[in-house]
Design a protein that fits this description.
The protein has two domains: about 1-160, Rossmann fold; about 175-280. It has helices at about 10-20, 35-45, 50-60, 70-80, 95-100, 145-155, 165-175, 180-195, 200-220, 220-225, 230, 235-240, 245-265, 275-280, and strands at about 1-5, 25-30, 45-50, 60-65, 85-90, 110-115, 135-140, 155-160. It starts with a strand and ends in a 5-residue tail after the last helix. The longest helix has 22 residues, at about 200-220. The chain has 14 helices and eight strands. The chain is of the alpha/beta class and about 280 residues long. The protein has an eight-stranded mixed sheet, with helices on both faces. It is elongated. Bound molecules: NADP nicotinamide-adenine-dinucleotide phosphate (NAP). NADP nicotinamide-adenine-dinucleotide phosphate binds near residues 7, 9, 92 and 93.
């Protein structure tokens, strides 16, 4: 199975190199700029293509590792060239296969979204970090099992999802990655209100966040949970809410409600009813 890449960016570099390390045949790269395509080809010891049709002609599988907004137009550009029996994949977390490759099955080809649940920031080294990464797979029913087995066969963890839940899935991914930065920014702003400079706040949060993140990764969320809510300390929780403004308090309360579930899982014997009633007046 010969695999080509349209788009020589972070994910294109990473997936191409990973496939090569697993002994798969990668034909090469087409990209908007010849420099990017050349760099990716050098990195993976594959070929540069100056025309996307030429890459199509020599590849059985094409990965569209493009910005989300460019995937569909490149697909529309390729469609007239005859794509029968080809396998098209994109890596967007937000788009379904159907969004990107509408009615692809009518052409005799199949389409998939293959999304790494991972932030790829270093295009030269991320391929070494894919061992524990989940890849969510969704797309044409005819070859779904085939794709799943092929990806599993090269050591990837694969989770098949339905197109209906793709947006919710992507929202979950954003919460666990980008939105953690939102929480840290919120925390940092409160520290600045306590007299820390922005720089001091970031430095002070580093070991707190890093130690906690490491504990979560190693031992799981339940084990890693500490703090006033876990201890059932309603008085402190009330003080926290008193020092926040209305919108901030809403966010704190919503997160606290999620934490009650985790705390209860950690301490089945503890009674968190008072906290629950305070956070969710009237039940819920
Ligand atoms: N980075 C992540 O953490 C991550 C994680 C999961 C999924 N994804 C998904 O992976 C896909 C690629 O993301 P990325 O982070 O790799 O993006 P990226 O680093 O910005 O790379 C995109 C590449 O596509 C090329 N390109 C743009 N428009 C093009 C066009 N019309 N024709 C040909 N090439 C074009 C760019 O070209 P030049 O360099 O040639 O100018 C660039 O090299 C996206 O769908 C994204 O949602 C990303």
């Amino acid at each position: 199975m010969k695999i080509g890449f349209i788009g020589a960016g972070k994910v294109g570099f990473t997936m191409g190199k990973y496939f090569r390390t697993q002994g798969l045949e990668v034909t090469g790269y087409f990209s908007r700029s010849i420099q990017s395509a050349q760099e990716a080809a050098d990195f993976t010891q594959t070929q540069v293509f100056t025309g996307v049709q030429d890459l199509l002609a020599v590849s059985d599988v094409l990965f569209f590792t493009l910005p989300d907004g460019a995937i569909r137009s490149v697909y529309e550009e390729l469609r007239p060239y005859g794509i029968q029996n080809k396998i098209f994949c994109h890596c967007s977390g937000a788009l379904t296969a159907g969004d990107a490759f509408p009615e692809i099955e009518n052409t005799g080809a199949v389409g998939f979204s293959v999304h790494p649940l991972f932030a790829v920031s270093d295009k030269y080294h991320a391929y070494e970090e894919l061992t524990d990464v989940f890849f969510t797979l969704e797309g044409s029913a005819a070859k779904l099992s085939f794709m799943k087995e092929r990806l599993k066969g090269i050591g990837l963890k694969v989770k098949v999802i339905s197109p209906e839940v793709k947006v919710k899935y992507h929202c979950a991914a954003a919460l666990a990655s980008n939105y953690v930065i939102g929480l840290l920014a919120f925390s940092s702003r409160l520290l600045e209100e306590c007299g820390f400079s922005a720089n001091e706040a970031e430095n002070a949060l580093r070991p707190l966040f890093g130690g906690n993140a490491e504990h979560i990764v190693q031992d799981g969320m339940v084990s890693a949970l500490t703090g006033p809510l876990e201890r059932g300390d309603l008085a402190t929780l009330k003080k926290h809410l008193d020092c926040l403004d209305g919108e901030q308090g809403k966010l704190y309360s919503l997160l606290a409600r999620e934490l009650i579930v985790t705390a209860q899982n950690k301490h089945a014997e503890r009674d968190y009813t008072a906290i629950k009633n305070y956070l969710i007046p009237g039940g819920g």
